[in-house]
């Protein structure tokens, strides 16, 4: 029997971020229910507040980082998080490259049925 979750807007939860979705939002789970959270890093344990709840997923805002990732970085832009132009500045550059490679590999596998082996590593910018 499947467990029924009763989640609502305004509810606070603690989640572990186990993936980064295309577009930069972190993916946490409560049982099999997905919670998307911006401005988090893979592996972090965070406290969030639900701002939108749908049948199969929810969106949340970050309230507190309980256990930060070693890949968390200080954004260089003072407008990061406000203007919406960047999704990854809070993540160390080497980790950004791994995330982007995984996202492209996943996309090619899911949509095109290609093996992940056909995607070369991301070539880093000499001056990120």
Find the CATH topology.
OB fold (Dihydrolipoamide Acetyltransferase, E2P)
Largest sheet: 5 strands, mixed, barrel
What is the H/E string? EEEEEH
The class by helix and strand makeup works out as alpha+beta
Tell the overall outline. Answer: globular
Let me know the CATH homologous superfamily.
Nucleic acid-binding proteins
Summarize the amount of helix as a percent range.
Answer: 10-25%
Major beta sheet, strand line-up: 1-2-3-5-4
Taken as a percent bin, the fraction of beta residues is 25-35%
Overall tally of domains:
1
Rounded mean pLDDT is 91
Write down the CATH class.
Mainly Beta
What is the secondary structure topology, with strand pairs?
Blueprint: E1 12-20, E2 26-30, E3 33-37, E4 45-53, E5 57-67, H1 93-112
Parallel strand pairs: 3-5
Antiparallel strand pairs: 1-2, 1-4, 2-3, 4-5
Give a nutshell description of this structure.
With 128 residues, the chain is an alpha+beta fold. The chain has one domain (12-118): OB fold (Dihydrolipoamide Acetyltransferase, E2P) (Beta Barrel), CATH 2.40.50. Helix content is 16%, strand content 30%.
